[in-house]
Amino acid sequence: MVGLTSLMLLVSLAAAQAVPPGTYASGADLKRTLEDQPAAPMVVARIESTDLTRVNLIHRTVPQNAIVHATGWEVHHIVDGSGTIVTGGTLVRSVDGSGARVATIAEGESRTVSTGDVIIVPAGTPHWYSQIDGWVTYLEIRYDPGTN
Fold first, then answer.
1. Chain centroid to CA 96: how far?
2. Each residue of 42-91: pLDDT tens digit?
3. No. of H helices and E strands in the chain?
């Protein structure tokens, strides 16, 4: 009887310490989220956002400014479309003729990316989709995004 009581106690302790099941986002829901947003150069379907991680499905139709994150790293997994990503080098900030802020990358490494490709961007690394061939959609996973 003591053995059965001990087993029941262990099972109840294990149940009390159950871990969450994880996050699930269906492809259909993500696609609908992207399609339901107003047309814009970049639309985002948020999957998860915590203190340590951000996971988004991002759809871009035109290049935007280069960026660098002081903390954390990113993974981009291209799920549709293609373009050119520039990583590394030096972030160059300027103002164009209309007074708009512009950020590009000097002396970075350019790569053509398409469906199935994966890019890992370490913390402190400038990155920029300098050219988009119609559109590029990618799963972005950011670890330790800090405040940026």
1. 28
2. 999 999 998 889 999 999 999 999 999 988 899 999 999 999 999 999 99
3. 2, 8
Tokens in use for 20?
């969450």
Give the three-state DSSP class for 56: strand
The domains of the chain, with CATH numbers, are 26-143 (2.60.120.10)
Number of Cβ within a 10 Å radius of residue 106:
11
**How far apart, in Å, are the Cα atoms of 27 and each of 31, 37, 41, 57, 117?**
6, 16, 21, 10, 18
What dihedral angle (degrees, nearest 10) is formed by the CA atoms of 128, 131, 135, 139? -20
pLDDT digits (tens, 9 = 90+) for 120-139: 999 999 999 999 999 999 99
Q: What residue has token string 């799920």? A: 79
Q: How far is CA 26 from CA 7, 46, 84, 89, in A?
A: 38, 12, 28, 37
